[in-house]
User: Which sequence fits this backbone?
């Protein structure tokens, strides 16, 4: 470590020169936290993340407010941050949600499918195919308006009810999302059970079935301590979009452990150590997460955050 709290950059061959971090703390993170934070705090959080150099910050969710009470203030929050010079995708489950998002000027949306029937039922009360049918008109209308569409796919590696998820099942739903018109996919390891070989196999199968690596983002959870190893495998395969959550906020209510999203600080430490550009100022990011942890009244699970914010 250098005196400035940065890793020594030692580039490694075969890795992308730059990675785009898709910051999910304000949405995936806060949606899964016990404590609901005030709208103004969320807006300041997003502003601070943008100031720290994150260029894609998922802002909120336009699901029915009763589904996700932590994000029920989407209508109030979005206008408070929409002037920021960053991409601000929002989650949209259906046409009603799309209408709400478009009315406020959202230019990037995300739909969220499941690779397994059990999670589709638990999360959307639909079969996998019924959920896809619900998203189809949403994606079509968004594309008609030149809105960028991300397709989240949950349970790509394991499912808490079904166990290991067959790769062909993940590939089938991935292709359906791409065929529908999604611009990018985010492959979610929702319960954090993936290991690097599994990641590489899935990426290769997707490529073979016509889904290009350039359209793939990875969304790893650190439940079993595998998120960075899985990320490195994905980078070696050519993936350049990685989801992470500032301070490791949130997780998955269906996972056994409280440890969920890969912390952005941990990711940035590894990427900068590999000499990979992210545009992120790790010091500003860390300060932001320390500030947010105080609002949530709980310590961050991020190892890097703890190391950098610990004063002897
Ligand atoms: Mg997540």
Assistant:
């Amino acid at each position: 470590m250098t005196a400035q709290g940065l890793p020594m950059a030692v580039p490694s061959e075969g890795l992308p020169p730059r990675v785009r971090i898709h910051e999910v703390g304000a949405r995936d993170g806060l949606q899964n936290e016990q404590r609901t934070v005030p709208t103004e705090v969320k807006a300041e959080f997003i502003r601070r993340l943008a100031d720290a150099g994150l260029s894609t910050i998922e802002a909120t969710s336009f699901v029915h407010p009763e589904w996700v009470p932590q994000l029920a203030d989407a209508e109030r929050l979005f206008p408070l941050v929409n002037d920021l010079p960053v991409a601000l995708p929002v989650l949209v489950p259906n046409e009603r949600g799309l209408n709400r998002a478009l009315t406020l000027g959202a230019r990037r949306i995300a739909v969220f499918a499941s690779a397994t029937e059990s999670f589709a039922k638990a999360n959307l009360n639909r079969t996998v195919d019924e959920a896809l049918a619900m998203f189809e008109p949403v994606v079509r209308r968004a594309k008609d308006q030149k809105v960028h569409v991300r397709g989240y796919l949950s349970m790509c590696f394991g499912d808490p009810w079904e166990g290991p998820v067959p790769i062909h099942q993940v590939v089938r739903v991935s292709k359906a999302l791409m065929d529908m018109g999604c611009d990018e996919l985010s492959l979610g390891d929702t319960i954090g059970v993936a290991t690097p070989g599994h990641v590489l196999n899935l990426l290769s199968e997707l490529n073979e079935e016509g889904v290009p690596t350039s359209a793939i983002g990875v969304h790893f959870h650190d439940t079993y301590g595998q998120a960075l190893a899985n990320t490195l495998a994905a980078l070696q395969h050519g993936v350049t979009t990685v989801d992470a959550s500032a301070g490791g906020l949130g997780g998955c209510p269906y996972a056994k452990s409280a440890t969920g999203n890969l912390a952005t600080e941990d990711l940035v430490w590894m990427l900068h150590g590999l000499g990979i550009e992210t545009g992120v100022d790790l010091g500003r990011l860390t300060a932001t997460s320390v500030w947010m942890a105080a609002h949530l009244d709980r310590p961050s699970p991020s190892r890097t955050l703890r190391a950098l914010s610990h004063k002897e």
